[in-house]
Each structure stands twice: as C-alpha cells, then as structure tokens.
Amino acid sequence: MSVNLPPPTHRKRVVPQGELEAASTLKLGADQNTHTLSLSEARLVINKVLENKRRGGKKYDEPENLTKTLDYLEVFSRFKDEENIKAVERLLNSHTELEMFERSQLGSLCCDNAEEAKSLIPSLQNKITDNELQELLDELTKLRNFVE
Prior knowledge:
By secondary structure, this protein is an all-alpha fold. The protein has one domain: Growth Hormone, Chain: A (Up-down Bundle). Helices cover 49% and strands 3% of the residues. It contains 6 helices and 2 strands. The chain has helices at 39-55, 64-76, 82-93, 100-109, 114-120, 130-143; strands at 21-22, 26-27. Helix 1 packs across helix 2 (64-76), helix 3 (82-93) crosses helix 4 and helix 3 (82-93) packs antiparallel against helix 6. The longest helix is centred in the N-terminal third of the chain and has 17 residues, at 39-55. The chain is flat, with a radius of gyration of 20 Å. The termini are far apart. Its main location: nucleus.
C-alpha cells in the first residue's frame, strides 16, 4: 500500500554564496566591514525609534515579533544606561585591531576573562594579547549595570 504525502510546506534552504564563518578566521563575506551592534546598542536604537514613533501622534501598534525582540534585548542587554552604552562603544572602537563583529560580540557577551572571550570568539586568538584583552574586559565590567 502506497501513501500519498502532501507537498512539503517548507522553503528550500538558500545556500550561502561563498564561505561564511565566524571561527578562528572571520569570513563574513559582504558583511565583513558592516557596522554591527551589541545587544545593548540594538536595544537603545530600537527604543529610540519606537519613542519617536509614539511621539508622532498617530496610534502605533507594535508587531508581536518586535515586542518579543525587545523582551529578549531587555533580558540579555548587559548595559542599560545610554551613557554607559556610548562609553562601551567608544572603548571597543578604540581597539581598531579588532573587527567590528568581534567588538560587538565582546560588548554583548561580557566575558569574565580573556580565556573565555577567546574560546567564544576564536578570531581574537592572534589579534590581541591575553593581558590587553583582560584589561578591556575589566573596563567593560566597570561599565556594567548590575542593578536589575
């Protein structure tokens, strides 16, 4: 007895053009030099845009996926205060030896030590010494908002 299956309901996965990889060597293709945001920066940008929309006078209903994104960012953003977010961005951008992707990852992950940072972001391995990275991580920790 043969069973007739309905046609698949999923879309075929698009194969990426070129090799994209965030490993010991960053291969981000066309996005290699794209400005990236940490989770805290993304939270700040989205909240500013929404604040402007709400002030516009028209009723604005937030889409469900935006609400869920904001909820996620609220939980996982390590820096809440706008002043601290800007200070973190300045600090990370002063490390021009690092790619923008690596800087935003450091700003989002807030690793405790250089070993953890290099294991989570393998491309840091030969770009920055453990001592320099630890100093950077210590400065980031000083800017964290630990108040819930």
